[in-house]
Structures are given as structure tokens and as C-alpha cells.
Amino acid sequence: MGIKSKDLISLSDLSVEEMKEIFINAKSMKEIIHREIKKVPTLRGKAIINLFYENSTRTRSSFELAGKYMGADVINISAGTSSVAKGESLRDTAKTIERMGADVVIMRHPASGAHHILAKAINARVINAGDGTHEHPTQALLDMFTMLGHLGTLSGKKIAIIGDVLHSRVARSNILGLNAFGADVWVCAPPTLLPAQVEKLGVKVTWDMKKALEGADVVMVLRIQLERQKKGLFPSTREYAKLYGLNQEKLKLAQDNALVMHPGPMNRGIEITAEVAESSQSVIEEQVTNGVAIRMALLYAMGGGKFNVTA
Predict the structure, then answer these.
(1) Fewest Cβ atoms closer than 10 Å to its Cβ: which of 98, 122, 187, 249?
(2) Can you give the residue ranges of every domain in the chain?
(3) Taking the C-alpha atoms of 192, 195, 200 and 201 in order, what is their torsion angle to the nearest 10 degrees?
(4) What CATH code is assigned to 11-135+288-304?
(5) Among 104, 48, 102, 98, which Cα is nearest to 71's?
(6) DSSP at 300
């Protein structure tokens, strides 16, 4: 069947069947990661560009490894060390990339919606690696892939998303994907860290962490984005940790085998304790491995698979 959309800007660009196909392929890709020689020629001759206007460790590295494991030529471009620092516009950067012969461009940008400008300007396929506070679709794919590996299904499962939902592109993409698979999604945060009318996204909303955790199959903790907390949205990190930080005592409210997830990087001692992050219920390290596998599967679908592409 394949992926019909030219670009992956929002998780809504993928149907449930397309996501399932990515998950199936990711299982095979995960086997490659654990081989002694991590190389397959699937994307040989393809050019992939990582264009990052914001700092990143996990996402950029996993996309880079995913491309290289599959034989593609991968180039990393950081805004601070490119012509962007000299004032070059996104459109001009896009045209330069187009002339270089890129097949896939993976971009992270601080402005929500920037990927639409890029996608319209070039023929190469565009993957959103995070745009402002809008979306981070590949993070949601790897999160759901991780959940399915342990739960078998997402239908009817209670997923509690706790933390800075207001600034979280991870939360938005996960909500879209989890709702599509029939999960019971709860979001929990101080009212100042919840988007206006967030319930319209199809989630249950609470300020009470105990209600969110009660009977949860998955507890997804979001990073407190300290770099965005200049407006005094909560009194102190100490008070936040007391009310909304996940510790072992609070985790007991969830199912006995509930999964603990975090998109990283973690602020240990604020949104999650080190004890919980390193517990047997934590799948945080597995998320990192699954991130490479999912991005390999996606790059295959968008760069190496013989799929029906419509502009």
C-alpha cells in the first residue's frame, strides 16, 4: 500500500493502515540495529539532509543513523553554522537544498508551520522533526510502537500524558495517533500548562495527577521546558515536582505493570525521579532504540519504497 502523502508534517498525514505498515517494517529494522554489521543497501544512492534550526541530540542522531544504516548519504546542516546565520531565508535555503539533489529533507524549526513553506518550495520529501509547539510526528510513531510492543493493542488502554502539554509538540502528535488507535487519552498539568480548549482534541483533562494515574496502562511524562518558562507559569520547580512529578508512590496508582515513558531529555528530580526513570517499568531507553527503527522504516517508505507518491 505505502504512504500516499509526499510529506510527513503532521501525524494526520498518515492513515491508521499506513502507521501499521510502518510499525511492521520497524520490527525488521530493529533487527538490523542489533546486528554486528548495521548496513543494508536499501537507500543506496539516496541523499538525505538533516536541517536543524534548533538543538537536538536524539532526533537528529537517530535520523542520521537511520539513513546511514540503510546506505543513504546523510548531510547534517545546523542553522548556527550555515548561511542561515548570515540571514538566508528558509525559502532560499530550500532552493539551495533542492539544487543539491536531496531526496528527503528532515527539518526541525522553532516556528510552527515552517514545514509547509519548505514542502511547497521543493520537490524532495519533507519530514517534520519538530516545529515550534505544533507537532513531532516521528516521536509519536516511536512512542506508539513502544507501547504496542508491550501492550499488544492501544484500543481501550488508558494513556496518561502528564506535564507541560502547552508547549509540547510531542503531546499533540501522540494525542492524534493514540486517538486514531482507540486509546483512552488523559492529559494532566497545572491549568497554566494546558492549551485552551484542549479537550476538543479528544482527551480527558484533569488538574489532579491522582485521577490521571489511576488505572493507567501507560504514564507518559513530558519534559518541563525550562527555556520556555519565562512567564512564571508555575511558582517553582520544587512545587511542580511535589504536585506533578512522577515518583514511586504516585506510580502505584497506575496498573502494576504500567509503562513509564519520557521523550527526553529528562529533568530528573523535577518531572520524574531517577528511581522511576531507571525502574523495571521504565521503557525510556527502549524508546531511543525504537526511534532509530521507526525512522528507518519511515525513510524506507519515503525514500526507498516503491510507493504511490502524490504531490
Answers:
(1) 249
(2) 11-135+288-304, 137-283
(3) -120
(4) 3.40.50.1370
(5) 48
(6) I
Give dist(CA 165, CA 276) in Å, integer.
21
Signed CA dihedral, 101, 300, 3, 143: sign only: negative
Cell of 191: 491549568
Residue 52 pairs in a beta bridge with 78, 108
How is the beta sheet containing 47-52 ordered, strand by strand?
73-78, 47-52, 104-109, 125-131
Are domains 11-135+288-304 and 137-283 of this chain identical in fold? Answer: yes
- Non-local (6+) Cβ contacts of 188 within 8 A are 160, 161, 162, 205, 206, 207, 208, 209, 211, 212, 244
**b/e map of 94-124 (b: 16 or more CB within 10 Å)?**
beebeeeebbbbbbbbeeeebbebbbebbeb
Single pTM value for the model = 0.93
**pLDDT by 10s per residue, the chain, length 311:** 568 899 999 999 999 999 999 999 999 999 999 999 999 999 999 999 999 998 888 999 999 999 999 999 999 988 765 555 545 788 888 888 888 899 999 999 999 999 999 999 999 999 999 999 999 999 999 999 999 999 999 999 999 999 999 999 999 999 999 999 999 999 999 999 999 999 999 999 999 999 999 999 999 999 987 665 566 677 788 899 999 999 999 999 999 999 999 999 999 999 999 999 999 999 999 999 999 999 999 999 987 544 333 32
The CATH number assigned to the domain with range 137-283 reads 3.40.50.1370
| Cα distance between residue 190 and residue 42, in whole Å | 46
Q: And the C-alpha cell for 48? A: 538525505
